[in-house]
């Protein structure tokens, strides 16, 4: 299952990249589907090549078996003609073709196992491809939910780390500073206010004169 492990690592890496880089979930899923399609194409090509090699090996094995059978029959014919030397040479040929045919038979068994595994892997990948493609909308929703959860965790992490609290403290400090500054600014003089202020000033002056007059009168009375 080496190919499945590699494919799984690729998909997990894509998902991590999706969450970390805030990529478009639908686009990312389309790329994953495309990756599976490309893998399916490669596996089908590999399976087709393996089957073609298997058939060629079968033909070679059959050809050498037929050749071995021919030389065995010739050895029998030469022996029937009392020609042991020729029969012996024919058996050498028979043995050579027989050995080669057995080598091909071994290759056929090995290739058969490879084809069996390739077919099994291909079926599994086709199932995964069909599952992802048929449930693409569900996976997109899940990816978006995962992204939202990731963002929420980041926000809560900032709150827990005091980052947002610090921001609000700075904001409040700035507001207080502006409020204090505004209190120090004297508003423009209102003409009506100025008139009343002048009247108040005249009243104070009149009262002051009255007090001084009373003081002077008291001093004169005391001198008498």
UniProtKB/TrEMBL annotation:
<dbReference type="Pfam" id="PF04012">
    <property type="entry name" value="PspA_IM30"/>
</dbReference>
<comment type="similarity">
    <text>Belongs to the PspA/Vipp/IM30 family.</text>
</comment>
<dbReference type="InterPro" id="IPR007157">
    <property type="entry name" value="PspA_VIPP1"/>
</dbReference>
<protein>
    <submittedName>
        <fullName>Phage shock protein A, PspA</fullName>
    </submittedName>
</protein>
<keyword id="KW-0175">Coiled coil</keyword>
<feature type="coiled-coil region">
    <location>
        <begin position="101"/>
        <end position="142"/>
    </location>
</feature>
């Amino acid at each position: 299952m080496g190919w499945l492990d590699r494919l799984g690592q690729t998909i997990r890496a894509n998902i991590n990249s999706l969450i970390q880089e805030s990529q478009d979930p639908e686009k990312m899923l389309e790329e994953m589907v495309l990756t599976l399609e490309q893998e399916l194409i490669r596996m089908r090509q590999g399976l087709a090549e393996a089957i073609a090699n298997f058939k060629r090996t079968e033909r070679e094995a059959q050809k050498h078996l037929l050749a071995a059978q021919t030389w065995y029959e010739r050895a029998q014919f030469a022996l029937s003609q009392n020609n042991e030397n020729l029969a012996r040479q024919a058996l050498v040929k028979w043995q050579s073709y027989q050995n080669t045919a057995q080598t091909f038979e071994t290759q056929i068994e090995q290739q058969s196992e490879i084809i069996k595994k390739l077919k099994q892997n291909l079926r599994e990948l086709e199932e995964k491809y069909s599952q992802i493609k048929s449930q693409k909308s569900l996976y997109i929703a899940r990816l978006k939910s995962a992204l939202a959860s990731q963002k929420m965790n980041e926000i809560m992490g900032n709150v827990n780390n005091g980052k947002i609290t610090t921001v609000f403290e700075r904001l409040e400090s700035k507001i207080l500073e502006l409020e204090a500054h505004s209190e120090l600014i004297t508003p423009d003089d209102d003409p009506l206010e100025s008139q009343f202020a002048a009247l108040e000033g005249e009243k104070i002056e009149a009262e002051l004169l009255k007090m001084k007059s009373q003081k002077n009168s008291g001093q004169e009375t005391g001198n008498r």
